[in-house]
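Changelog entry: the Coproporphyrinogen III oxidase record was regenerated in this release. Current contents:
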Amino acid sequence: MLSTDLADLKAYMADNPGAVIEDVARGRNVTPRAVIEALPSSMVRMGGGEHFAAAMQDVAQWGEVTLIVHTDDAIFEFTGSIPAGEIGRGYFNLMQPKGLHGHLRHERCAGIAFVERPFMGKNSAFVNADGGIMFKVFVGRDETRALRADQLARFRQLADRIAA
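Regenerated structure tokens:
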């Protein structure tokens, strides 16, 4: 990306921090990771993808969160507890028979972004090797729709460990 394009993207994200990452990326022909990294530094911290399993094990202890998978064709949302998982046969396997389960290609995770911005609160975005977003995990909300303080503390503690 040219430095003028990067400066323009950073200015845009400073003025529009709540913009949908994938929409900005598509509109500017850049990766979602480039958009995340263009957010003001006070809103994002990046950790390495090698922390994928540890991050997922931690998130599995948070309780009810919202996991989002955003593709060009759909936005899938799951609200509930993320199951514990383990690495086996080349995947990080979510270990429960019902609800959210499946097999994640953990080795394609190139980074974990800890994002705190106006749009929908606090989330972790797991970024793939191509600069795309594998999925996002949003801190849960309580019965008054406020962010859960216990999860927000866990989110920040995980960011401190991974993105130090």
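The first strand starts at residue 44 and ends at 48.
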